[in-house]
Structures are given as structure tokens and as C-alpha cells.
Amino acid sequence: MIKKYFNTTGNCLPDKHYMMDNSRQLVEVLELVETGQYLSDFKFMIL
Q1: What whole-number distance in Å separates Cα of residue 47 and Cα of residue 40?
Q2: Are 47 and 36 in contact (CB under 8 A)?
Q3: What whole-number distance in Å separates Cα of residue 19 and Cα of residue 11?
Q4: Is residue 3 scored above 90 in pLDDT?
Q5: What is the pLDDT of residues 19-42, one digit of tens each?
């Protein structure tokens, strides 16, 4: 068995990475988006 660890760089695999159920939070986020109550922060790189 592989020792699990926190993955912060890409897709998580349940056999390798710790996972959390964030489905409840997703519902709340969708409600905020649908009512226009969200803040977006985009960073652009200028060359």
C-alpha cells in the first residue's frame, strides 16, 4: 500500500492522495454564481 499524501499540483487519485468531499461547498458556490454574488481575481502576465 502506498502512503497517501496531499496533492496540490494536479488531479487527485483516491489510492494515492487524501481526498475530501466538497460537494456541499460546490452547491453554495453555484448559488453564489447564479445570483451574481461572486468575486473573481485574475492575474495576467504582461510580456
Answers
A1: 22
A2: no
A3: 11
A4: yes
A5: 988 888 888 888 888 888 876 665
The C-alpha atoms of residue 1 and residue 15 are separated, in whole angstroms, by 9
DSSP reduced 3-state for 26: helix
Mean pLDDT score, 8-16: 90
- Distance between CA atoms of 18 and 2, rounded to whole angstroms? 12
Residue whose cell numbers read 466538497: 22
Which residues neighbour 34 within 8 Å (Cβ) at sequence distance 6 or greater?
A: none
Q: For residues 28 and 37, what is the distance between their CA atoms, to the nearest angstrom?
A: 11
